[in-house]
C-alpha cells in the first residue's frame, strides 16, 4: 500500500512542480522574455522543468534512459543559480567561482551521458556536493551584497532567492541521499514550488515583503500540522505521515501559485483605463469622451450635455460636483436636501452607479453603470484619473481658445 502511495505522491509532486514552473515561465514571458534578468531566470526555469519532466516520464514509462536528463539538469542548476544571482545583484562573481561552477557543470553534463550506474554512488555524491556548494556560493553572494546599490525591490528579490536556496539545500540533499536516510520520496519539488510562488509574488509588490514571508510560514506550519494530525489519527507511520504532509503542502502551494498568477493577470487587465489615457491621441475633450464610451470597462457610458440638464439647478450641480467630481451611488456626498434630490435624479434617470463631471463650461457629465467598481478600489482610482484628464483637457482647450 505504502509502495503504491509513494509512487503516486512522487508523480503528484513532480507534476505539481512542472505546473508551478510552467506558470512562472508564463509570467516571465508575459513581462519581457528578452529582459536580461528574465532571460537568466527563464534559463533556470527551463533547466528545472527538464529535470521534473524527466522524472515524470521515468515514473510513467519505466524507461531508465530518462535518468540522463535528470542528471544533466541537476548538473546545470548551480550554473543557472549563479547566473541569476549575478544578474539580480548586478555584480560578477569572482573568476575562480565562475570557473568552478562552469567547469563543474561541464563535467556533470559529460558524466550524465554515462548510462550505466557503475560509477554510482560516487557520481551522485559528487553531484550532490557540487549542487550544494553552488547553492552555498549563491547564498554567500546574496549575504555579502551591497544593499545600498540595489533598490528595495531588488533587495527583496535577492532575499527571496536566498530563502529559496536555504530551503532547497536540505531538500536537494534528501533527493540524493534518499536511500541512505530512509525517505519515502524526493521532496525537492516542494522547494521549487516555494521558489515559484515567491517569484510570482514579486509582481504584486503592494502585498509587502514581510507579509509574503509571514504567509509562507503560515502555509508551511498549517500543512505540516494538518498532515501530522492526519498521520497520527490514521496511524500511518513515519512514511505515510511524510507522504500526507508532502501532498498537503504541494496542493497548498499549487493553489497559491495559480491564485497569485490569476490575480496578477487581473491587476494587469484592470489597468485598462490608464492604458487608454496613455494611448489617447486627441486633445479634444469631446472626442476623448466619445472614444471612452467604447472602452470595455465603461461600455455603455452616457455623455450628458448641458442642454439635457436644463431641469436641474446649475448652482446645485456646482455644489455637488465641487464636493465629489466622481459621484458614487453607494457613497454620495451629504449635502442639502435639494442636492440629494438632484443626485437621486441623476442616478435614477440614467440608471447609473457613477456620474462624473467631465467638463465645467459647458457642463458635460458622464453616467456609468459599473456595479463591479464598488468592490474595485483600483478601478475607482482609474475613474477619478479619467475625470481629471477630461477636466484638464477642457480647461486647456478653453485657455487655448481664449
- The Rg value, from CA coordinates, equals 29 Å
Quaternary assembly: single chain
- Give the percentage of residues in beta strands: under 5%
As residue ranges, the low-confidence spans are 371-375, 397-402
What order do the strands of the largest sheet run in, or round the barrel if closed? 1-4-3-2
**Which overall shape is indicated by the principal axes computed on the Cα atoms?**
elongated
- How many β-strand stretches? 4
- Main beta-sheet annotation: 4 strands, antiparallel
Which percent range fits the helix content?
A: 55-70%
Number of helices: 14
String of helices and strands: HHHHHHHHHHHEHEHEEH
- The average pLDDT is 82
Report how far the terminal alpha carbons are from each other: 87 Å
Q: What would you call the structural class?
A: mainly alpha
